[in-house]
């Protein structure tokens, strides 16, 4: 049996995204979070007495890696060197090697794969021989199927492959060493140590093939949410036991909360404070994008949303002193009115005309066409999903209902001009 740690996508010193008004102490902690995650990874390797550590690409966040990030990595690798734990790594699309003038030297226990698939051999403390295979990116895009070029060589007890890449999709061949599941199945390796996908997952093949996910989330993107970490792998001739190892210092999450019908600012403040304390019991530092739902209380949606923002900002001011902070960011904001969309759609009221226009299948695409026709829009804006479009429709209808509709006590539409 051999025991090793598998990590990927460390993105050391990468700026976090989506937060602009953090107090200095929380900003500094978020900026340190990738380094804390690396330190915890090395702590675990020492505690587990790992035979070796694998890093499957994107150790740094760009090819012009910062000296700060390199220094932190070298320092941690020397801790492993003192414990006689070797490290095998590949560079990926974010830290590809195209210049050497700005690179610090690595300790002798760190082995970096070249641009073409290669193999390193190590002998573990129990005498078992392991062959480790991999390649490093030399540019941002590698469109070749590199997995198909991996070949087992020589005699070893275990053959392990590192690969920073993605499964081929049916749309195009891909830019990041695209492979097929058949490539992984038929290559004959005992474990595929994958990187590039930030969401932890095992691929549906008979051989163990894992993406451990990134060590530390850095935004509210779906792939960055929740507890992050690496894998502890126990590998025998017939079995692989893969255990999740949490390393993240801060979590990023989405949360949905229905606040019902809020009548006063005090009531809203207490509801939010109770929500934050519930989250504090679950996490040791968390950024929360809060998707909120309210029942109509007579206030226009814009007025209620403004009050909600003010309460969130006020409660956030107290978080700087907490190591287990709960920092709230406003996500979607929805007010359920007692107006009936079918009744409005069937009415001759001006609002009915607008609602019918909004509910047209192409209405959101047409409204956003000018934005996406701009070169910056095409570059930076992701496509709108069907869920995004429905949220836009509903928010638009709620704003119209606040402004245009006068309702009678029984909820029917007053059709007076």
From TrEMBL:
Keywords attached to this Swiss-Prot or TrEMBL record, sorted alphabetically, are: Hydrolase
Could you give a GO molecular-function term held by this entry?
A: hydrolase activity
Is Amino-acid biosynthesis tagged as a keyword?
no
Which InterPro entries does the record cross-reference, listed alphabetically?
Calcineurin-like_PHP, DNA_Repair-Maintenance_Comp, Metallo-depent_PP-like, Mre11_N, Pesterase_YhaO
Return the Gene3D superfamilies for the record.
Answer: 3.60.21.10
Domain Calcineurin-like phosphoesterase: from-to ranges:
2-199
Reading the lineage from the top rank, the first entry is: Bacteria
Name assigned to this protein? Calcineurin-like phosphoesterase domain-containing protein
């Amino acid at each position: 049996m051999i025991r090793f740690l598998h990590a990927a996508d460390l993105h050391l010193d990468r700026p976090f995204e989506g937060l602009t008004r953090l107090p200095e102490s929380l900003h500094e902690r978020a900026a340190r979070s990738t380094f804390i995650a690396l330190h915890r990874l090395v702590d675990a390797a020492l505690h587990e007495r790992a035979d070796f550590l694998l890093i499957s690409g994107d150790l740094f966040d760009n090819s012009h890696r910062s000296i700060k990030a390199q220094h932190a990595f070298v320092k941690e690798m020397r801790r492993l060197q003192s414990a006689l734990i070797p490290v095998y790594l590949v560079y990926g699309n974010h830290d590809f090697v195209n210049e050497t003038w700005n690179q610090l030297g690595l300790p002798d226990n760190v082995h970096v794969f070249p641009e073409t698939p290669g193999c390193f051999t190590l002998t573990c403390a129990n005498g078992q021989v392991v062959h480790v295979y991999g390649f490093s990116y030399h540019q941002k895009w590698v469109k070749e199927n590199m997995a198909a070029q991996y070949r087992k060589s020589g005699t070893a007890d275990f053959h392990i492959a590192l690969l920073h890449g993605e499964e081929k999709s049916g749309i195009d061949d891909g830019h990041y060493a695209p492979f097929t599941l058949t490539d992984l199945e038929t290559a004959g390796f005992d474990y595929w140590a994958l990187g590039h996908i930030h969401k932890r997952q095992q691929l549906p093949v008979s051989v163990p093939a894992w993406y451990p996910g990134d060590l530390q989330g850095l935004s509210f993107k779906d792939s960055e949410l929740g507890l992050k970490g690496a894998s502890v792998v126990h590998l025998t001739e017939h079995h692989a036991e893969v255990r999740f190892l949490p390393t993240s210092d801060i979590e990023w999450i989405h949360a949905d909360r229905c606040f019902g019908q809020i009548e006063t600012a005090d009531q809203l403040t207490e509801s939010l404070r109770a929500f934050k304390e519930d989250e504090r019991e679950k996490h040791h530092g968390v950024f929360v994008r809060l998707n909120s739902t309210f029942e109509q209380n007579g206030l226009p949606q814009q007025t209620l949303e403004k009050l909600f923002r003010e309460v969130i900002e006020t409660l956030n001011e107290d978080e700087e002193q907490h190591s287990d902070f709960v920092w709230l960011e406003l996500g979607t904001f929805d007010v359920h009115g007692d107006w009936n969309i079918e009744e409005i759609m069937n009415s001759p009221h001006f609002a009915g005309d607008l609602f019918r226009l909004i509910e047209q299948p192409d209405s959101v695409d047409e409204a956003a066409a000018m934005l996406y026709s701009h070169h910056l829009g095409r570059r930076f804006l992701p496509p709108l999903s069907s869920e995004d479009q429905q949220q836009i429709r509903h928010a638009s209808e709620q704003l119209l209902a606040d402004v245009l509709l006068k309702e009678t006590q029984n909820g029917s539409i007053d059709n007076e001009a």
